[in-house]
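cron nightly-structures :: item 1 of 1
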Amino acid sequence: MDYAGPQKRIAMTCRIEGCPGEYEASTIMHTVWHKGQVVVIDHVPVDVCSLCGDALLKPDTVRKIEGLLQK
């Protein structure tokens, strides 16, 4: 899974109360429990807070993960 291409990104401050960090594009290893099994998906694009580590998945990324799990 990759971002659609080079895009101008606007800095977004962290949604966690009191955290002054900003989200930065990164990738994570996403683990989910599905139909009684643990599924691990590597290189999932996310925005991660530079200070507290809070991670945000974009709606299109969530839809892609849901599609993978249905196959």
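cron nightly-structures :: done
The chain is about 15% helix and 40% strand.
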